[in-house]
Design a protein that fits this description.
This protein is of the alpha/beta class. The protein has helices spanning 11-18, 41-51, 67-77, 82-95, 111-123, 141-157, 169-172, 197-211; strands at residues 2-4, 30-31, 34-35, 52-55, 129-133, 162-165, 177-182, 185-191.
């Protein structure tokens, strides 16, 4: 699902409150039946670790760790059994087509391979929800498409639920559902259904035209 809206409409704030980075001043947030606004810091950290995955705009890979170690880091921090860690990393790397670069460091691989590593890291704990804030913002068109296709594959083949904030209509057209926010409130919602991606892309542009505001939304 994509969240769209002009700058200042509340997209990133929404994502940050769902991800527990920010706390709400009023209201409640329920994730899988749990009201995360009532959790104490330690319980919140456990909930975040066990239920959420993150795909960052700049990947946030650690240059001193190999691709394999970057993917496995959260499992190692959680003191997972070494054999289980190796098995999980091998499985997710195979699904995302990066098995042959596991022993390399981030600076030794391409941008597209870094993206897949970041996706593998987000998936390794089998989170209930993956959050992505402008994941294609710093990428060229080829790399953007590759990341979106990878995320689409994660959604279809690996049953990963993805919530993505984006300004980009092309990125949003890969989603099944798009929610538009204006001044902190839901302005509109559209579903892809049986439409082609091109048809859905044009429908997104139509809503953005009605929404008005940030010119970059239509780019």
């Amino acid at each position: 699902m994509a969240i769209m809206g002009a700058s200042g409409s509340g997209k990133t704030t929404l994502l940050n409150t769902i991800s527990t980075i920010d706390t709400v001043t009023s209201g409640n947030i329920f994730l899988d039946g749990v009201d995360i606004t009532t959790l104490k810091e330690e319980a919140l950290a456990d909930f975040r670790r066990e239920n959420l995955g993150f795909i960052f705009q700049d990947f946030n890979l650690l240059d001193t760790l190999t691709i394999e170690e970057n993917i496995a880091l959260s499992l190692i921090i959680n003191h997972e059994d070494v054999l289980k860690v190796d098995k999980k990393v091998d499985e997710i790397a195979k699904k995302l087509g990066i098995s042959d670069i596991l022993d390399k460091f981030p600076y030794e691989v391409s941008g597209g391979q870094k993206q897949r590593c970041a996706c593998a890291r987000a998936l390794i704990n089998e989170p209930k929800l993956i959050l992505a804030d402008e994941p294609t913002g710093a990428l060229d068109s080829k790399s953007s498409r590759m990341l979106l296709e990878t995320m689409d594959e994660m959604n279809e083949r690996l049953n990963a639920t993805i919530l993505m904030v984006t300004h980009d209509s092309f990125s949003a057209s890969f989603c099944k559902r798009v929610i538009f926010i204006k001044d902190g409130k839901i302005f509109n919602e559209i579903l892809k259904g049986d439409k082609t991606r091109k048809e859905f892309f044009n429908e997104i542009l139509d809503v953005l035209t009605m929404l008005g505001g940030d010119d970059s939304l239509a780019h």
